[in-house]
Amino acid sequence: MTDCIFCKIVAGEIPSSKIYEDDQVLAFLDITQVTPGHTLVIPKSHVADIFDMDSEVASSVFARVPKIARQLKEKLGAKGLNIVNNNGEIAGQTVFHSHIHLLPRLEETDGLDIRFDTHEPDFEKLGKLAQELYLEA
Ligand code: 5GP
Ligand code: ZN
């Protein structure tokens, strides 16, 4: 896609700090480095988000994640790593070429705070929702 910044990175029209590349997938350092080593893993083909992704592209992108995550952990001495994938503006997506954020966690005071608001479990509601969402394999 011509006006997509990540397609331009794939094409080499915009520079990036690559840490992994093969014929289908590219991983490069996020320009903002939310935590040290913050990396984006992207498909080389233009796919807007998870809703737009077929299983072949998903297999190639997600299959590379553990290997890249291990490299970040080992080389940076990270104690852990968060994986974030934003889909749609409401979910915080700003670049509409699908990407997976890998966020190495080197220390507790790194400023990253991913928190879930929890609710009391309502088992009746959970049962009904699961029925509604149930997807045949
Ligand atoms: P999103 O908010 O869509 O999940 O994440 C987009 C990410 O892309 C942001 O973390 C932002 O820093 C990163 N980003 C945007 N433009 C560029 C760029 O030109 N180069 C690199 N390396 N990262 C970028
Ligand atoms: Zn693109």
UniProtKB/TrEMBL annotation:
The keyword Hydrolase applies. It comes from the Bacteria. Keywords: Hydrolase. The active site is at H99 (tele-amp-histidine intermediate). InterPro entries: HINT, Histidine_triad_CS, Histidine_triad_HIT, HIT-like, HIT-like_sf. A motif (Histidine triad motif) lies at residues 97-101. The keyword Hydrolase applies. One of its GO terms (molecular function) is hydrolase activity. One of its GO terms (biological process) is nucleotide metabolic process. Residues 5-113 form the HIT domain. This is Diadenosine tetraphosphate (Ap4A) hydrolase and other HIT family hydrolases. It comes from Streptococcus merionis. The lineage of its organism: Bacteria, Bacillati, Bacillota, Bacilli, Lactobacillales.
